[in-house]
Amino acid sequence: MASTMLSIASASSASLFMQDSLKQQAKWNVGASNQIAFTGKNLDKIKSFGRTSMSVAVNVSRFENITMAPPDPILGVSEAFKADTSDMKLNLGVGAYRTEELQPYVLNVVKKTEKLMLEKGENKEYLPIEGLAAFNKVTAELLFGADNPVIQQQRVATIQGLSGTGSLRLAAALIERYFPGAKVLISSPTWGNHKNIFNDAKVPWSEYRYYDPKTVGLDFDGMIADIKAAPEGSFVLLHGCAHNPTGIDPTPEQWKKIADVIQEKNHIPFFDVAYQGFASGSLDEDASSVRLFAERGMEFLVAQSYSKNLGLYGERVGAINVVCSSADAATRVKSQLKRLARPMYSNPPIHGAKIVANIVGNPELFNEWKQEMELMAGRIKGVRQKLYDSLTAKDKTGKDWSYVLEQIGMFSFTGLNKAQSDNMTDKWHVYMTKDGRISLAGLSLAKCEYLADAIIDSFYNVS
């Protein structure tokens, strides 16, 4: 009996001692080689040692509730392409320029400029928050024209951003802070990252009609009706040229009507200019829509990117421009853009900005760039024509494929639905986004007939 009481007392004492230890998150040593950690938080497994039950801590992640994110709809295409072992595979998903041999291309003028920069021995010090002053000057002049009144009157607030995406994100933060509750109208469809940017910035958005699947063209009437119906003072996101993903742009007359309606409704235009000079081969022609709105005396925003037209994809160089009604307003807007940029990324990268500043600011290099850009735009026009010719020759039904030629820039909307696009990949090893968009910049003349076969098969044999 005494032995039993002693045993119970010992067990009870041990239990109390264990509870105290658990509260203190202490460690118990069991034997010479068996150390067991008690955290008091993750006590999931029970092991019995004689009469004493002890809880063993299990290493459970604090991030257990974070689920796997879906692959990016555009960048995920490249990952799937890399895993394909077919010799016939084509990557028409990501918008990056390729040579006729389908290899990445660094512009000769960029190589020349980098060599000159290296010879000068420039340093790698931090840039100011607003970026490289020489870059900001030439990029605004390239967009609006150096003699434009908005430049001459210093009515443009320009700061260097992290390419087009970062510039759009900075503008979204400006909208969220200084135009609370204002909605952004986005074309349907649009570049896949636009919605992500405004969602993360907590800026509400809705869509306006743009693409007409019946004609594989612009639904201009629907676009105008939706802009008219939007609450007064909304931001209207417009693609300056080479609309992504459709490649369908308004005509000059249609741009005038768009400007009329936006002015009538007191909306604020917001341009995304990712392909200046790369769409038509002319820097001025591709900036004509933006300059039209500047001529109207309107206040608006423009995000720029040099990824495509200078091939500076990995340098992440671009800008956000805000056209204001006065120089004083532009100064204040610029100060707030800097304030927003500081906690986001502090200051932008220097190398790409210096490349742009040196090329655009040097007449000789600038002319070399324009010539090279015309060659790139010309190659894309060539494969667009060859694809159209191949589709027309191979399709015996008489279907009108002329919309392929009417589109502009590096992208073409094929008119294929998701099931048909899946067939393009599963059967033909042609990788593209599921909305039917293909990047002609990733197509060669030699592959046009193969692509035409794939499109015709998917269009007629998959519903």
UniProtKB/TrEMBL annotation:
The Gene Ontology biological process terms listed for this entry are:
amino acid metabolic process
Keyword Transferase set for record: yes
Q: What Pfam families does UniProt report for this protein, alphabetically?
A: Aminotran_1_2 (PF00155)
- Which cofactors? pyridoxal 5'-phosphate
* InterPro entries (UniProt xref): Aminotransferase_I/II_large, Asp_trans, NHTrfase_class1_PyrdxlP-BS, PyrdxlP-dep_Trfase, PyrdxlP-dep_Trfase_major, PyrdxlP-dep_Trfase_small
Q: Which parts of the chain span the membrane according to its record?
A: none
What are its E.C. numbers? 2.6.1.1
What GO MF terms are annotated? L-aspartate:2-oxoglutarate aminotransferase activity; pyridoxal phosphate binding
Q: Where is the Aminotransferase class I/classII large domain?
A: 89-455
Q: Which UniProt keywords apply?
A: Aminotransferase, Pyridoxal phosphate, Transferase
Q: Which reaction does it catalyse?
A: L-aspartate + 2-oxoglutarate = oxaloacetate + L-glutamate
The remark listed among the other comments is: In eukaryotes there are cytoplasmic, mitochondrial and chloroplastic isozymes.
UniProt lists the family membership as follows: Belongs to the class-I pyridoxal-phosphate-dependent aminotransferase family.
Assembly, in brief, is:
Homodimer.
According to UniProt, the name of this protein is Aspartate aminotransferase
| UniProt organism field | Lithospermum erythrorhizon
Q: What is the lineage of its organism?
A: Eukaryota, Viridiplantae, Streptophyta, Embryophyta, Tracheophyta
